[in-house]
Write a structure and sequence with these properties.
Blueprint lengths: L5 E2 L5 E2 L2 H8 L3 H9 L8 E10 L6 E8 L2 E7 L5 E7 L3 E7 L4 H23 L4 H29 L3 E6 L5 E4 L5 H22 L3
Antiparallel strand pairs: 1-2, 3-4, 4-5, 5-6, 7-8, 8-9
Keywords: Membrane, Transmembrane, Transmembrane helix
Length: about 210
């Protein structure tokens, strides 16, 4: 069905591209619909937003976050049907961290990646005798750099977290990636999460 997450026990979970396109525009109803396939119907959603793209447009992974009266959750939608869902119950959250790493390392990595292109281009311009082969080689180097760039970005953010890391007692930590320009949304989620966690602890009595 268009607009719904499709579950097929014999195949896999699929989120229609039309729904993802709406969710990327920060359509909170579309994002809530994505999460409602994973959480019980009786949970109230307080927060549902798009938190960014890891990698390059069209080939990166997209991050969505959700906060209900019981849990904080994250959905990562990637290439070739990749869907990762993770959550943690509010009363079992021990601590949380918001990371905003320096871009210096990323700029250095990108510079090293495109260095062969720059060297080949400069060499070609200084020695125009082999202009055509030099331009062809420079173009090949540039194309390889473009292909590898999204993987370099993802590898960088694998070691340099950007977003929220939430520690869950007795479970896996919930990592919600966020683009730097959307960290204010992550901060809003963190503030709301803190209040909701305190209310949940009072309700359940879990310490």
């Amino acid at each position: 069905m268009t607009g719904n997450v499709v579950f097929n026990r014999q195949k896999d979970i699929r989120i229609p591209s039309s729904l993802i396109q709406q969710a990327v525009q920060d359509d909170q109803k579309a994002i809530a619909l994505m999460f409602q396939q994973f959480i019980p119907d009786d949970e109230t959603i307080y927060f549902a937003q798009y938190l960014g793209l890891k990698g390059l447009w069209g080939i990166g992974t997209r991050e969505f976050a959700c906060l209900t009266d019981r849990r904080v959750a994250d959905i990562t939608v990637g290439r070739f049907g990749k869907i990762d869902y993770q959550d943690g119950y509010l009363e079992h959250i021990n601590s949380s961290f918001i990371y905003q790493p320096s871009k210096l390392g990323l700029y250095i990595a990108a510079g090293v990646l495109f260095a062969p292109f720059a060297i080949a281009l400069i060499t070609t311009l200084l020695n125009p005798v082999n202009l055509i082969p030099g331009l062809i080689f420079s173009t090949i180097c540039f194309g390889i750099g473009l292909i590898l760039l999204p993987f370099i970005v993802q590898l960088y953010y694998r070691f340099k977290k950007c977003g929220i890391v939430i520690s869950v007692r007795g479970g896996l930590p919930v990592y919600i990636f966020t683009n730097r320009k959307l960290l204010t949304r992550a901060n809003a989620l963190w503030r709301l999460l803190t209040t909701s966690r305190e209310e949940r602890i009072k309700l359940t009595g879990v310490v």
